[in-house]
Amino acid sequence: NSLINKDFLMSRYVFLVPFLPPLSLDKPPELSFEELISLLQVNLSRKDLEKIKVLRLAVDLSNMRNLLLGKPIDPHGNFSEKELDEALLLKSDLPQYVFDFLDQFEDSATKLKNFWGLFTQFFAEEIAKQKGFLKSYLTFERESRLVLLSLRAAQAKKDLLQELQFEDPLDPFVTSILLQKGLERYTPPSEYTRLNEIFFTYYKDPWEQYRAFTEYQFAAVADIVSKSLFSIDHILCYVAQFILVESLYHLDRKE
């Protein structure tokens, strides 16, 4: 039975993958994000769709911050603005740790001030649960964000202990950052050397820095995915890269 089920799932991926147009940072995607999600909903199992949902959850968290700031939301999350508002109001359809974290703070200003802590909780919870591409992708997202936070903190002469107050100080990656506390310049681990180069090469030009970060992420995500073409890992990689490409072309350059 397990072999039959495996073959059935494989046939789903074989059918789906040819319908996914190649992605390039040189042009917008041929599909809209809504069309991509509709295609996935028709062809993927509930278990696979849950993985897509986790991948998009980081966007939902950013959108919660946008709601607090009165800014438009990113359309790549799991919820529309109205749906996200209702989920937060009714405390439903989101992981319990989201509500537990936000309930610690009484007003929007305090929530915004401590919002990084919600991402810390998200990565801690979801990395522990996942495996394969999704686990590696979330680990990369967490570490690259910590590297950027540390580079900015060092440049702005902010207290790293304060900036990393929600992180586990015994976590090896966090420990490696804290060991450089007080130094004039933070040096990331060797696997993030390119990120370090991008930060300092383009720090005076936000648009070029954003584009270079996107190119770096696009390539890094491709490196993470397994070599098996017809797998959910390949499709998760496609969704992650799709969001990067579409976000690049939808971004207001002036903004």
Descriptive notes:
- By secondary structure, the chain is mainly α.
- It has 13 helices and no strands.
- Helix 5 packs antiparallel against helix 7 and helix 7 runs antiparallel to helix 8.
- The protein is globular and about 55 Å long.
Q: How large is the radius of gyration? A: 19 Å
Mean pLDDT: 90
The total count of strands amounts to 0
Q: Give start-end ranges of low-pLDDT stretches.
A: 1-9
Report how far apart the termini are.
54 Å
Task: Give a short account of the largest sheet.
Answer: none
In short:
With 255 residues, this protein is mainly alpha-helical.
Write the layout of secondary structure elements.
Layout: H1 2-16, H2 33-43, H3 46-69, H4 81-90, H5 96-102, H6 108-113, H7 116-129, H8 132-155, H9 160-163, H10 172-178, H11 193-201, H12 206-224, H13 232-250
Helix pairs in contact: 3-13, 5-7, 7-8, 11-12, 12-13
Protein traits:
255 residues; 13 helices; mainly alpha; single chain; globular; disordered N terminus
